[in-house]
Amino acid sequence: APAIRLEEYQPPAYRIDTVHLDVQLDPAATTVTATLSLARQAGTKAGTPLVLDGDELTLTGLKLNGEELGSQDFTASADRLEINAPPASPFELTITTQINPGANTKLMGLYRSSGTFCTQCEAEGFRRITYFLDRPDVLAVYTTRLEAPKAECPVLLANGNLIETGGVAGSDRHYAVWHDPFPKPAYLFALVAGDLAQVPDRFTTASGRDVELNIYVEHGKEGLCDWAMDSLKRSMRWDEQVFGREYDLEVFNIVAVSNFNMGAMENKGLNIFNDKYVLADPDTATDQDYANIEAVIAHEYFHNWTGNRITCRDWFQLCLKEGLTVFRDQEFSADMRSRPVKRIADVRLLKSHQFPEDAGPLAHPVRPRIYHEINNFYTATVYEKGAEVVRMLKTLLGDDSFRAGLDLYFDRHDGQATTIEAFLACFEEAAAIDLSRFALWYEQAGTPVVAVQSEYDPERQTFTVKLSQEIPPVPGQKSSKPAVIPLRFGLIGPNGEDMDLSAPEGATVSGDVLVLDKAHQEVTFRDVASRPVLSLLRGFSAPIRLSQELQPDELLFLAAQDNDPFNRWQAVQTLAMQDLVRLSSLIRRGDSGKPSEDVIRVMGSVLTDTSLDAALRAQALTLPSEADVAQEIGKDVDPDAIFAARRLLREAIALSHGSELLPLITSLAPAGAYSPDAEAVGKRALANRALHYYAASGDDDAARLVWDRFVAADNMTDRLAALTLLVHDHMAQEEAALDHYRKRHEASSLAMDKWFMTQATAPGDRTLDKVRALMKHPLYDSSNPNRVRSLLQSFATGNPTQFARADGAGFELVAESVLAIDKRNPQVASRLLTSFRSWRALDPQRSVLAESALLRISSCEDLSRDSRDIVDRTLQ
Ligand code: B3K
Ligand code: ZN
């Protein structure tokens, strides 16, 4: 496939002002008649051919201004329709295509999910429905008429407002006409038709307009929509209050489907969701599920302004909508819950997903300059790092200028398809600031490493901080320019208070933010009465790696004293990380390590510090993951040694603090009915974290307690926490627990996904055979993306010792699965394939085996474009 390059962007030669779609739904032969009003763009020569995109289409009719087109006037193939010499003045094209939604296993375009017709058009799925200028800078007003048998498809939905419904005379069919007055790109088109239950509600906007809200689900699942609906209404209110953004149509519909390639999709007025991000009740959804639903509902809703009203000029600008919308959903969740706890969770995700991406063969800038398959660029870098860049902008500008810049953006670009440059220009203007250097965050791949050294001079009472920055080389980027890095900081005095400081020399400081913008910088603070401890990168104010040589006593001080809750958590993590790296390397050499007393003591004080929020304590007590430690080690990684090191530290903590654990487990149960509010969630998290340590002893008492909690749990969070311990620690009741769980939950696919996942992520060499056996389980379905993710994706990304087994069998299983899935669903296959991205960091024996699995995939000749792109880049 040819490379698409940002520098080669050309505006479209033709405009499409309106689209009338008539869709005659049929499982095997759906007929789509698209009537497009087209016009030459200023600057297009009369007679310039019109080239429309298609993908697996069959053309069955073509008219220009109502006249059948002769075969000499066009050329058509499954993936392209060219009108040789269109009229010079505006004209109308009527295209009829026939498609087979029942055979659409890629889940792009129009397909069926458990009998429901639904669509997914982002990024390039609309061209699988009709021939079109399928690019985000072609904005049109859509009217959609759907027709289907009334009994099979009582529900007919499309974008916009419903303007007409009726029966088709003399038949069992009925129709609905939807009109969306807001011009939109084709990727935001959607339709749904099927027999679904409707859960209705209402919302009154700030200006008093009444909006009808609906969630559509499979019959019988109506009772699982309360939390999603509640999250939607809170999102709508929040966007009004915090960003001044109101909803703009008469109706907002959400449909939950069980077969979906990703999380959800923000189609105008008709969001389509993976049911995993809609359905919840205490018995089947964990606290994490509730938080995810709240965040994804908000994210898709927020796209109405950041993505839909203002969209992207081209797919290189994807972060324009995604980075900004992730930032908005993060802020929403922070306001709904605890801000520091949310920040820690977001940073954990960034470090575990985006940092490895940015350090490996798949690294790319937040705004890529080249792609072969755009669907491979819905990445942690575009989304999560993209959100960090927006967050830095806010940190640098301050709240008021940031809001003024965003207001200007909404005002100036409403109704447009635009670029990162235009976005930044709004902030430059609103804040009278030059962002040309800041823009490097969109251009450069890789995570900057900031090295820090500090020195206190008691004679002169100065404190000097030497900072330097550098991005290690990544594919296609050997050198880099210094970035603009906002570092939130404090100098903490011996009493634990932040010192009052006057402006230092050597850097711009505003408030508590120091701006590092050169390769090397020396910053001197004067009149510093005593040696401070430097707390840097508070709140994780920039997506960088800090290389700061803090002494253990300084880290212990920060862990106990830092006024910034994020950095307190970070100090605990850093202490644990240092110890895990040390222990891993000892174990690797065959020595027996002894965990550090300091770390054990810090964990003990977190356990017992009741002045801290329970959720924060749970976060601090969660050791860096195996993947986090692997990333920190960086090369010649032995996952078995890392696993053993974590196990050792966990046991040592459990042994030293045994007596503190039991009361936490038993006393923290929130009173009353289950609620997903922040306080109750925090209590459950801490109790289950304590249980995790308590179980480490492996003795009978511990096993009994875990089993009892498993059986007695009245919510999924506690049940799954106990099940995970029983299975991952291979306790005697492991199989009994899995059986018990299966019997209880086999009617709920989403609950069973957790059952598959728990087994796929269990350590120990029996897991591989188990996963192979589970692939044949009657409840497993390799055509359903959620099932594949729960079993295979979680094995490949959540089980480092077994995926990277020293005999290569883990790599083989995943390679084999990628090849099998690729034939049906390239997007799911290529996502699974990205689990190999850190293969070069493994020890030589393992990396050779990973490479041969990759070569096996690469040698397959009919690989999809999606998987070909990932395997080529991974091997490069
Ligand atoms: N915009 C969609 C993602 C589409 C992915 C296409 N392969 C969901 C979201 O980010 O809100
Ligand atoms: Zn999004």
UniProtKB/TrEMBL annotation:
Keyword tags: Aminopeptidase, Hydrolase, Metal-binding, Metalloprotease, Protease, Zinc
Location of the Peptidase M1 membrane alanine aminopeptidase domain: 227-438
Cofactor(s), by name: Zn(2+)
Domain Aminopeptidase N-like N-terminal: 15-188
Catalytic reaction(s) noted: Release of an N-terminal amino acid, Xaa-|-Yaa- from a peptide, amide or arylamide. Xaa is preferably Ala, but may be most amino acids including Pro (slow action). When a terminal hydrophobic residue is followed by a prolyl residue, the two may be released as an intact Xaa-Pro dipeptide
CDD domains named among the record's database cross-references: M1_APN
EC number(s) per entry: 3.4.11.2
Domain of life of the source: Bacteria
Similarity field: Belongs to the peptidase M1 family.
Protein name (record): Aminopeptidase N
Source organism (scientific name): Roseibium salinum
Record gene name: pepN
